[in-house]
Amino acid sequence: MTADRREAINQYIQSRGEVRLKELEQRYTDVSSMTLRRDLEFLERQGRIVRIRGGAKSLAHLSMLKEAAYTQRQVANTDAKLVIADKAIRLLSPGRSVYIDSGTTCMCFAQRLPDQNLFVLTPAPNIALELVKNANVKINLTGGQLNRETLTLSGFNAIEYVKALNIDLAFVAASAFSLPNGFTCGDYFEAELKRLIIRKARQVVILMDASKLNSNMPYTFARLQNIYALVSDILLPDEYQKAARQAHVLLL
Q1: What distance lies between CA 164 and its chain's CA centroid?
Q2: N or C: which end of the chain has fewer CB within 10 A?
Q3: Whole-angstrom Cα distance, residue 23 to residue 1?
Q4: pTM for this structure?
Q5: Starting at the edge strand that comes first in sequence, how are the strands of the sheet with 176-178 ordered?
Q6: How many H-runs (helices) and E-runs (strands) does the chain carry?
Q7: What are 121-147's pLDDT values in tens digits?
Q8: Positions of E strands within the chain
Q9: Where in the chain is the domain with CATH 1.10.10?
């Protein structure tokens, strides 16, 4: 029966992670290739798989891959991120409205956050959960659509929510930084949110380890003249120090 076959196909894809259409044709010789394609379309509409060129993948498998990728980013340059977090914490004082961006460096910063009277806005659900243990920190999420790869909320709802808020101090992550192109990231909607945060915040602090220097991502969201401080793990190269001094940026 159709329902039994579709369930069997789903179980096969879940067990393998990824399956080619040719494999299914060899397993189900009593039905046509077109029927198998319709089965995959049905399973995709149910949210159990995602079709790819020439086959299908398990959504659970994709989620595990993305989780593994995030974990890999989290453990990369751990010492550098801890140095950055410890430096950035010095800029905090109680009673302030603070924005904490998404990303693994900002997660390290959030883990170091003291339990004091702070209003914290973040686009990162995992950072919000990390801060739950701090009883005196008021936690607010931007809302919006979740990017599963970066664990970041962005989009129209996030923009509209942020427009109504005042921010004293924004801690913003950068995926890359070069003098010609400034601070950049890889997602259009996240760049749009970062630009708004930078316009709204009284002071902007970029958290970025030195591995991001001399590199570029597609979307520029800030330049040196837009920020108050740049916190990194090492002393920046001379040309970056010179540019920062000219823009009156504090280097930590």
Answers
A1: 23
A2: N
A3: 20
A4: 0.71
A5: 176-178, 182-185, 219-222
A6: 10, 15
A7: 999 998 999 999 999 999 999 998 888
A8: 18-20, 49-52, 55-58, 96-100, 118-122, 137-141, 145-147, 152-154, 167-173, 176-178, 182-185, 201-207, 219-222, 229-231, 250-251
A9: 2-66
